[in-house]
Amino acid sequence: MRSLPIIDISNLVSASRDDRIAVAHALDRACAESGFLYISGKQLDWALFRRLHSRAIAYFALEQTAKMESYIGRSQNHSGYVPVGEEQFGEGVVDLKEAYDVNYDYLHAEGRRPLLGPNLWPEMAGFRDDVMAYYAHIMDIGRQLFGAFALALGLDEDHFDAHRLNPPSQLRLIHYPRDDSAQDRPGIGAHTDYECFTLLFATVPGLQIVSRQGGWIDVPLVEGAMIMNIGDMMEILSNGRYLATRHRVKKVREERYSFPMFHTCDYDYVVAPLTNDEAPRYAPLKGGEHLFNQTAQTFAYLKRRIAAGDLALTDVMPLHSFGRRDV
Ligand SMILES: O=C(O)CCC(=O)C(=O)O
Ligand SMILES: [Fe+2]
């Protein structure tokens, strides 16, 4: 099997448009070939990554009652602590993982949406500052990549800027506790990511993807590179040129941390194929609504609200309506 492509995105910050176009072409080829790839680049700030990791270690070491003070069900924008068992992908399978979810910190009173509001933070000195510093950094890397995708799809480089004013892009701090009895079964059930693309770094391997030949293959960690993958929305925007690949986290015995950032467009942005010269292969999708509907099908606190009649979803699509279905 060939290993996944690796793209150096350093030149996305070059003043030369030709340099940026060259990266866009390389990204386009890699994404057309594989829904998972690696990115490296001089603009990736590993000091910020290390600080995020340290904050996650300190946070998850707190007592459960302290962590539950920032329970995600208390937030206004789907941010906060996600205890083990809260999020369920597979029927009856509880993944051994806990998380702290951070969303776009939307402070205006006007324009709130289910995923747009102020972040919930734990009372832990330094946590908010370091997490937000990472969030701002990875948002900026995402902005550069949106520019590259725009070029790759034959659009103006700044095409996405107007559709990304307050995007509910989520950063997750995920902790998979050490589990000596771990068997090789999913740690996170198989899924595609809902958004445009995900940028992730992890402390130990464990991520697996469905190969185009079928079957699960490991995604090894590459020193100095982040893992990137295409989500449902980019599959639609590219009219299927790029595919959202199903993936999971297998059980590993080691303690593991991972930090995915799910880059998306504005809540009200309607996601539809952007390629003019082809017939659209996908129906348009309301971006934020899709994101929230999918989230509401996997989080216990939202399922409880639906069951109690406090929350009603519209235009729900079944989970796993995207991605390769060979497994
Ligand atoms: O922990 C990982 O490596 C992947 C997590 C993941 O796929 C997700 O949160 O969507
Ligand atoms: Fe994922």
From TrEMBL:
The keyword Transferase does not apply. GO terms for molecular function: 2-oxoglutarate oxygenase/decarboxylase (ethylene-forming) activity; metal ion binding. Its EC number is 1.13.12.19, 1.14.20.7. Pathway: Alkene biosynthesis; ethylene biosynthesis via 2-oxoglutarate. This is 2-oxoglutarate-dependent ethylene/succinate-forming enzyme. Residues 167-265 form the Fe2OG dioxygenase domain. Keywords: Ethylene biosynthesis, Iron, Metal-binding, Oxidoreductase. Its cofactor is Fe(2+). Belongs to the iron/ascorbate-dependent oxidoreductase family. PANTHER family: 2-OXOGLUTARATE (2OG) AND FE(II)-DEPENDENT OXYGENASE SUPERFAMILY PROTEIN-RELATED. It catalyses: 2-oxoglutarate + O2 + 2 H(+) = ethene + 3 CO2 + H2O; L-arginine + 2-oxoglutarate + O2 = guanidine + L-glutamate 5-semialdehyde + succinate + CO2. One of its GO terms (biological process) is ethylene biosynthetic process. Gene3D superfamilies: B-lactam Antibiotic, Isopenicillin N Synthase, Chain (2.60.120.330). Signal peptide: none annotated. The keyword Disulfide bond does not apply.
